Amino acid sequence: MTQRAVFFAYILGLASTLLAPETYAQTQLPDTVELRAVTVAGHKYTRYAAGSRTQSIDSLLLSRQPGITLADVLQQRSPLYLKSYGNGMTATVAFRGTTASHTAVLWNGLNIALPTLGLTDFALLPPSAHTQVALQHGPGGALHGSGAVGGTVLLNNPVSFEPRREVQVQQELGSFGHRRSAASGSFSNGRLSLTSSFTRTASDNDFRFRNTTVFGAPRETQQNAAFKQTSFAQDLHYKLSQNQRLTVRGWYVKTHRQIQPSMGSANNHAVQDDENLRLMAEWQGQLAGGTTTVRGAWFKDRLDYAENGTPSLSTVSTYQSQVEHERQLLPHLLLQVGGEAQVFKAEVGGYSGNVDETRFSAYSWLRYTPVDKLQINLNVRQAWVQSFNPPFTPTLGANYTLLATEGNTLTAKANVSRSYRVPTLNDRFWYPSGNPDLKPENGWGYEAGLVHAFQQGKLTGTTEITGYRLKVEDWIQWQTRGAYSEPVNLQNVRGYGMEADYRWNFQAAENVLLSGGLAYAYTISEQKLPNAWAELQDRQLFYVPKHKVAGWAEVRYRNWWLATDATFTSKRYTDNDNNNWLDPYALINASIGKTFAWRTFEAQLQAQVQNLSNTVYQTMAYRAMPPRNFRISLGLKWAQQP
């Protein structure tokens, strides 16, 4: 019955695009964003995220390397720690000392985390060159719903009706059989806008590595680690009138991976096939004195795993609908209200039968600007989940401008937010270890910081420092008990830390531009565990580094550029007792390139060195990572604008 209601809401939203009136008072949708190829623009959520730390990823990185996975993007441009089971293998990310299941991932406003695992494999997300990537650090239950405990990754494909025609292709080759082909195109005539992107990436992954589990750490050739991935994305936007817009989006990713065995273990010839299809439709128009948006979506996620020929199959269909209305109540008061529904239908071999689940939530976001120097947000959400009772999740945040001069702006920010996470389907239904009696996690987060924007002659930049504290009750963790591992609710996990971010640009000469950035995270995330004398001791959660640093710099001279990025990750414990750990490591990458331009035609030649220092490192215990390797690419682009 519920599924029918969700489906009906979806059909109703689509039908309303055909029946909506043709004339309204306004002449342009307020959410319409006119963008050039590499412009980073704000996402709508930033309007309601006062007091939170938000970060936009430079889209120039996606433009130069179409097909690069989101895992690689975040590794190079953020202080987040990525756990990877090998090059091209499963890669997950976590904010502020939480786990991968505490990170929400939204694609154009809809959560795409896999309901069975409750997490997202970032190696399966190759964003197109037209995708905006933004991060919101800290809890965001009121904005993003279940799972937004540590932070949120926002993927957005903006709407642009600016007349243009563009075609871009790129071919990349590299070490260990790496190859990537990419093509994209866009067209707009002021009423119809189309964007398409295609990428195919493959690698033999037959690199040499040091096997640290064997005496003398001999060099061996990595076995059973090849992969290939194909991705296609299509966006269609159509202006039904000056005040109505219809959007249809599709994103298909198919990945075949041999599962890289850990050092010292036998090769069981494991393989995994992932197939992810995401379809959504959106109507937006002017109603009741504001902007109304209706979305409907269907996702199908297939994960087939086989070990020594024995298969384990999983297919999940997700139906989502969402209705939002934003209205300017007063000159300084902006309100958005909305509701959404989700239906999961899972066919998983590890369950004792098929599983269905229904979720609803209603939310309200309020932005108040009493004076130019002060912005206040009050956001609330209440969710209803089949068999569960998630907590009411409010958020209160504020930004206040302390100083505003010709060359400097200093802003103070503070935020308090509640979050929650419903147990995943695997947590409850995996046979025989699932625990249907698990409680939903709920947490509180507090943060405060300063943001300094400056301009001194030819130097511009921003500096941001944030301190935070996080508490999560009924934290869900899988623990080994007897012959099986099973999920349990821990009493609580507490965390605190500091994040710093610095970005700058310097116009050294007419044809010389220097730019760079530095991001640092200090993270403490602890639970209390008994020692040998049954005394409770604070223990850092496993795979949470206390220190993570990411830095990057670039020099541009006319049509040439030279860029480098480096990361440092401190020691990470690999067990709850903090008796075993992985050593710290640093990685350095570098690239050089040149652009050749002839009127409407452009060619880009680029050479890259990954792991320049040839560092031997692991992000997961006993999972080998590639040594120094090289890539070269050639891109061709044709663009025409009236």
UniProtKB/TrEMBL annotation:
**According to Swiss-Prot or TrEMBL, what is its membrane topology?**
Multi-pass membrane protein
Please cite one Gene Ontology biological process associated with this protein.
siderophore transmembrane transport
The superkingdom of the source organism is: Bacteria
Gene3D superfamilies according to UniProt: TonB-dependent receptor, beta-barrel domain, TonB-dependent receptor, plug domain
Instruction: Look up the signal peptide feature and give its range.
Output: 1-25
What range(s) does the TonB-dependent receptor-like beta-barrel domain occupy? 185-612
Task: Extract the PROSITE patterns matched here.
Answer: TONB_DEPENDENT_REC_3
Xref: Pfam families = Plug, TonB_dep_Rec_b-barrel
Q: Where is the TonB-dependent receptor plug domain?
A: 52-152
Instruction: Read off the InterPro entries from this record.
Output: Beta-barrel_TonB (IPR000531), Beta-barrel_TonB_sf (IPR036942), Plug_dom (IPR012910), Plug_dom_sf (IPR037066), TonB-dep_rcpt-like (IPR039426)
Location (main, coarse): membrane
Q: Which keywords does this Swiss-Prot/TrEMBL entry list?
A: Cell outer membrane, Membrane, Receptor, Signal, TonB box, Transmembrane, Transmembrane beta strand, Transport
UniProt subcellular location: Cell outer membrane
Write down the SUPFAM superfamilies for this protein, in alphabetical order.
Answer: Porins
Citing just one GO molecular function, the answer is: siderophore uptake transmembrane transporter activity
Offer a single GO CC term for the protein. cell outer membrane
Similarity annotation? Belongs to the TonB-dependent receptor family.
Query: What PANTHER family does the entry give?
Result: HEMOGLOBIN AND HEMOGLOBIN-HAPTOGLOBIN-BINDING PROTEIN 1-RELATED, TONB-DEPENDENT OUTER MEMBRANE RECEPTOR
What is the designated name of this protein? Answer: TonB-dependent receptor
The taxonomy runs: Bacteria, Pseudomonadati, Bacteroidota, Cytophagia, Cytophagales
